Structures are given as C-alpha cells and as structure tokens.
Amino acid sequence: MLIPLGHEQTSVRRLPWVTFAIMGLCLVVFLLTFPGEKERLQRAFESLNEGWEYFQQHPYLEMDDRLLVQIVREFGEEGATSVIDLMRQTGPRPPADDEQLQEEQDIFDAMMDASSERLDASPLRRLGAIPSDLEIWSLITYQFIHFGWGHLFGNLFILFLAGPFIEDVWGRPLYASFYLTAGVVAALMFVVRYPDLNDPLGGASGAIAGVMGAFLIRYWNSKIRFLYWVYVRFGSFEAPAWLMLPLWFLKELLFASAADVVARDEGGGGVAFWAHVWGFVFGVAAASAIAYFRVEDRFIDRAIESKVTLVDNTVLEDAAKLAEEGDREAAKAVLEKELVGHPDNVDAAIALWNLSFQDGQVASAAPHLLRAIRDAARRGDDQFVTTHWLEILDSDFDTQVEPALGARIAEMLRTGPRLDAATKTVELAARGVESSTPPGVLLRLARSAMDLDSPQAAALAAAALTHPDLPPEAREELEAVAGSAATSSDESEAAGDEDEVEEKPMVHFIVAKRVVPRSLRGQTLEVDLDGHRRSIDLATVQVIAVSGIARAAQKPVVLVDLLLDSPWGDQPRLRVIRMTSDTFDPRAVVGGDDALGALKKLLVRMLEISEAVPLPDPDAARGNPFRSFSTIEAYEKEILGVG
User: Fold this and answer.
1) Which of 110, 324, 369, 585 is the most buried if burial means most Cβ atoms within 10 Å?
2) Eight-class DSSP state of 195
3) d(CA 244, CA 224)
4) Per-residue CA distances from 367 to 242, 260, 339, 342, 391 (Å)
C-alpha cells in the first residue's frame, strides 16, 4: 500500500481560501447529509424486499422495473429471466376476478412506490448525479457529497496536498472555475459510460483527479513523499511527480476497464474509476493549454505578486511567533514594516488590526485595514467590506471614510439588520464631503440618509444641488429630499410649542425587508435577502409578531415579523424583517419531520433567544393557535398599529 505524505513544494504566496472553502463545504455537507443514511437505505430496501416477497406469492403480476433492476443485479440478466419464468410456471395462477387481480397489482405497485419514495428521500440521491435521471445542477452538487468518513477524508487529504499549490499559481478565480469544471467533465464522462445507472455518483474525487493532472503538468519534476506498507514492513521514499502520477493514472484506467467486465451494470462496482480517469485527463489538458498560452506569465503572476503574502517562513509567521512569546509590540512592528513595503498585503493588514484591536490601540492599524476595505469594495467583495468595517465601528475609533467608499458601505449595510452601523457610516462619510465630491456620490449618500432618517440628509442634498452639472432628474429628487427634511424640521419646531400647537399623534409606517431563513446557530439567524446571505443577531430584535394571513383565493400563510423597533415608541418608522411560511421549509432550519411542528419550534427558539415581546400574545406568537387575519394590511393595523 502506498500513501502520499507530501511533496517538496511547501510554500504558497497567499492563503488558499478556495481550497479551504471546498474542504469546509465538503465537510459541512457530509455532516448534514450522511448521518442516518444507512437507516434510510435500510428502510427503502426493506420495502423492496417486501415487494419481492409479495411478487413471489403473486408471480402473475406485472414486474416493476425498479425491482427488476435489483433482481438482475442479483442473478444477472439471464438468471433473472429464468427465475421469473420459473416462478410464473410453478407458482399460483392469476385470479379469475379482474377486480381482485387489479387490487393485487395495486398493492404490489404501492410497495414499489414506497420503496422509491424512501430511496428518493435520501439527501445523497437528491444531491448526487444519477446517470439515468440526470439533473444539470447535480453536476455541481455531487462534488460535495461523500458516502463515508474514509471517502471524505481520503479525498480532502489529497486535495490538501495538491490544491493549494495550483490555486497559488493560477489564482483563485481560475482555480475555482477549473476545479468545478473538472468535476463536471468527470461526471459527464461517467454518465456517458453508464447511461442507465440508477445509483448516485458522489464525491470530490473527479475534480481532485483534475487537480492531480494539473499538478503533474505544473510541478512535473516535484518530488512526492510516500509511505509504503507491505505486510508488517513499512517505510517511506520519494519519487518525482512525472513518474508516480502517470502510474496512478494507469492504475485507475486498468481498474476502470476491469470493473466494466465484472460489474458494468453497477457502474464499475461502486468506485467511479472512469470519473477519476477523465478528471485527470481534463486536468492534464487544461494545464497544458495554460502552459502553452503562457496564461500565468501574461495575466496571473502580475496580479498576484501585487498583493502577495508568503505563508511559509513569512512575516506573518514571524509576527505570530513574537505574539505567542508575549512580545506583541515587536509583532506589530514587524507587520507595520511589511505594510510599508507591501501596502496591499491584506493578510498582514488583518493580522496587525487583530493584534491592535486586542490591545485597544487601533489608531495605527486602522488606515491599513481601511485600504484593504477600499480594495475589497472595488473587487465587489461585500462580505469582507462589511465584516471589517463593522469591526472598525465597534472599536469606537474616530475614523473618517471617503464619501464614495462610505456611500458604498452604507448601501451594503442598509440591506441588513445593522441599520445603526449604516447611519453611523453616512455620518462619517458626510464629514469628508468637499466641493469636489461628485454629485452622484452625494446623491447616494442623501438617499441612504433619508432611508435611515439621518439628520445629514438635508445637508447632503443641499451640497449636491450646488453642482451645475447635476442631471435634472437627480436635481428633482434632491430638492424633494431637502424639502422633506426642511418640512420635518419645521413641524418638529412647531410641535415643540405645546402652548400653541396640539401634539399630533405619530402614525407608524413599515420598512419591511422580506427574507428567507436558512439556519439558526446560537443567537444568529442566517437568511437570504435578495439573493444574498445575511446574518441577523436576534438580540437586536425587540418584538416578534406572528399571525396567519388568510389571503383571498390563495393558500393561507403564517407571517413572522421580527421588529427592530418598538411599535410603542415615538418613531414613525418600524423596521421589520419579514418571513412567510410559503417561502421556506422550517425543517431545514431546526429539523423535525412535521413542517408545522418545526415552524412552531423555530418561533419558540427565536422568542427564547431574543427575549423579544411576543405579539399578538405569548400563545398566538407560538402558534397555540395562530391568530388569523384576512389581509396583511388588517394584521399590520391591529397588531402593529400601522396607519
């Protein structure tokens, strides 16, 4: 037995986030899908055996194709035909009553349907690529499912040995595209080989075989270390990639051909050798094309070198070692020196920020992190921007952000639950407004300020209106913003004179963001908002309102509102995160077999975590029972006090 241990390539220029993400996703999907799979399959095959036993007692019935496939696997095609013919010749005769015959056929068909339903309920079948019933999306999802711990860790270990180094030289976008494409090609060729197979193909090995093929071309002369084990003797040796990887490929090709002889009807006996073969071939072809057209030299190296971060024997490692030894100031000095020479070193900027944040001294680190945030905003990496900008805000560092960047960040934050952070961002950006600030930036800031009820709205609108080249439609909008703010101010002043003006009651209006919940971890609810994943801290929720909505001529739904503002306050606006039961399956969020029970469980957990006020009352908010309204408007008026 040979087990690869590593190779002489030990350093990369940047952390291999794509490889790590693939490995993490494979592990997460495995933990979500594999537990209970054995029991699910056992129940399915029990139903199949019951059907087979029933057929033996009634051999005159029409044979179900799903059962026939299993019989052929057991006895072979000729053997299956002989067994069925013998049973029909020697077994009971069909009843003379046609109704009884149809009833028996219906019972047999129901047994087969039950077996299929149980089998199809398997998440591994839903996500796997089934050649006989191929779904296009399964060509991607099959790459992240695995059929056992050995299958999973074997694949991830090989990916860890080869993936980071191909990702390093090809760059993250090209590597990610290559990896997924290798998996698609491997699956398609497997489907071509076994078009009638009804078993799911799963695993990352086809894509990883592509990475191995690319490694052969890119690092052909690299020495690979192996552990060998022969009976009780074991040891290690080194051999070049140009020798060992082709030998592995020939072994897979030989096994694939042999499996076709002995187990073609089973897709090669349970191991997708042909997927490995074609994944490897694709990797060799793709890497050869990239080398031939000098893609690395012409397009990739220059981009990566501009923001390189060494991982092996690097500044980061030196700084981490100093910090572990307790010399944190020296660690920060090392990182600051690195950032002077390489200001685009994102990982060094983050490391310096983390050390400085822990020490409560972020003044020197904030400019470097702001530069990284600015670059991430240009790349469209919203997650990086919001995560690290919120860290700056939470540090209470009195920073100033460029208006253009502030406008971009405020727009990102307005779609999530951190509206307080969005308001603060607008205020910080407003400090940097100058006469040279483009009117488009001012318009975006003014829109955010109005949406957030920020007092900066009128000033930002007025600043933009001073630009002579402002488009007419934008000018009309800004004049409306400035006029609205001025009117609100006048009304507030008039309302302040209690002797002359009677106070007018506030009328609430709703700013609702419709979301789809995906998971609940700790006190964080993960949701989809307009196609983007967002996190909601349930501790920020003040009220949870739950009601049934009858909806004329439509199926009733349960409406769940998470209120970030109190409906009893003096603010006219209620910020609401809204969910409806027809847009998600609560069982995927909290588990369970019954959808209604899972929904009630989700409501109870959110109420317990948030300690929010339940509306209309504690029982109704938990669905015991739900209170029903004919329309959403009726619910909003009575429960939330919306005019």
Assistant:
1) 369
2) T
3) 8
4) 47, 62, 11, 14, 13
Report in angstroms the alpha-carbon separations of 271 from 7, 119, 138, 190, 252: 26, 20, 18, 11, 10
What are 397-417's pLDDT values in tens digits?
777 788 888 888 888 887 666
Question: What is the rounded distance in angstroms from the CA atom of residue 243 to the CA atom of residue 284?
Answer: 14
Q: How far apart are CA 185 and CA 182, in angstroms?
A: 5
- Strands (E) across 361-434 are located at none
User: What type of residue is 347?
Assistant: D
Rounded-to-integer distance, Cα 155 and Cα 105, Å: 46
Alpha helix positions (H), 293-327: 295, 301-305, 315-324
Half-sphere exposure of 61 (CA within 13 A, CB side): 25
Residue 364: both structure tokens together: 């020197």
Q: Sheet harboring 233-240: ordered strands across?
A: 2-7, 223-230, 233-240
Q: Please tell me the least confidently modeled range out of 9-18, 128-137, 574-583, 631-640.
A: 9-18
CA 229 to the chain's CA centroid:
40
Q: In angstroms, rounded to a whole number, what is the distance separating the alpha carbons of residues 303 and 168?
A: 12
User: Are β-strands 223-230 and 543-549 bridged in parallel, bridged antiparallel, or unpaired?
Assistant: unpaired
pTM, to two decimals: 0.47
Q: Distance between alpha carbon 396 and the CA centroid of its chain, in Å? A: 31
Burial class from Cβ neighbours inside 10 Å (0-12, 13-18, 19+) for residue 298 reads exposed
Count CA atoms within 13 Å of residue 367 on its CB side. Answer: 6
**Residue 210 contacts by C-beta under 8 Å, 6 or more apart in sequence?**
178, 179, 181, 182, 183, 185, 186, 279, 280, 282, 283, 286
Distance (Å, rounded) from C-alpha 414 to C-alpha 452? 8
Strand 543-549 to 557-563 pairing: antiparallel
In angstroms, the CA 382 to CA 408 distance is 9
Residue 493 in tokens: 């002043």
Pairing assessment for the beta strands 613-615 and 543-549 based on DSSP bridges: parallel
SS (H, E, C) 509-574: EEEEEECEEEEEECCEEEEEECCEEEEEEHHHCCEEEEEEECCCCCCCEEEEEEECCCCCCCCCEE
The residues, any chain, with a CB within 8 Å of residue 457's CB and separated by 6 or more, are: 446, 449, 450, 481, 482, 484, 485
Cα 100 from Cα 380, distance rounded (Å): 67
pLDDT at 264 over 50: yes
